[in-house]
Amino acid sequence: MRYSSKIRFVDRYVGSAILFIFTLLHRFFSIFHTKRKQAIRNILAIELVEMGASIMGYSSLQYIKKQNPDARIFILCTASTKASWLLLDAILPEDVHALDNRNIGTLIISIFKNIRALSKKNLDLIIDFELFTRISAILSFCIRARRRAGFYAYTMGGLYRGNFLDAKCNFNQNMHIAKNLLALTKTALSPSPRYYNWEGPISNDEIIIPSYKSDPELKESVLRRLAARLDRRRPLILLAPTVGAMLPMRDYPKEQYVEVVRQILNNYPEHAVVMVGIAAHDGAARYIEQAVGNPRCVSFCGQTATLRELLELFTAADILITNDSGNPHFAAMVGLKNVTLFGPETPFMYGPLGKSVCLFDFFHSSPSITAYNHKNPPSDSNESLRSISPERVVETVRLVMKGEAKYGTINNEIPYLL
Question: Which distant-in-sequence residues (6+ apart) come within 8 Å of 409 by Cβ?
Answer without folding.
Answer: 357, 358, 415, 416
